[in-house]
Design goal:
Elements: H1 3-33, H2 38-49, H3 58-76, H4 80-102
Length: 104
């Protein structure tokens, strides 16, 4: 792959992960504030994780799907600490992958 094509592919992957990270942040804030929309925002995260990513991050997306699914289950059963822990791990994994892609 050419250098320009590789940079574009990396940029697309970072953009996708930034979107996932922002949805995770919104969901986490909604959960912290006890918003009745917390379930909706968790659904936004789940929707952003459906299907494949723009390439190369399938291992991460699979882990994130599992973590967010567990977080939803714990949140639904009113186990806030367990739900929040999984959401924070999901966001940290996402942000670390962004750093890796950007060479930071």
């Amino acid at each position: 792959m050419s250098e320009v094509g590789g940079a574009a592919a990396a940029g697309l992957r970072v953009g996708h992960l930034l979107r996932v990270s922002s949805y995770l942040e919104i969901a986490i804030i909604s959960m912290w504030t006890g918003s009745p929309l917390a379930e909706v925002t968790i659904g936004m995260v789940e929707a952003s994780l459906r299907g494949g990513g723009p390439g190369g991050d399938d291992d991460l997306l699979e882990k994130l799907r599992a973590l967010v699914g567990e977080a939803r289950d714990y949140h639904t059963s009113d186990d806030f600490p367990a739900a929040m822990a999984r959401m924070r791990v999901a966001q940290d994994l996402t942000d670390l992958r962004i750093v890796t892609h950007t060479g930071g």
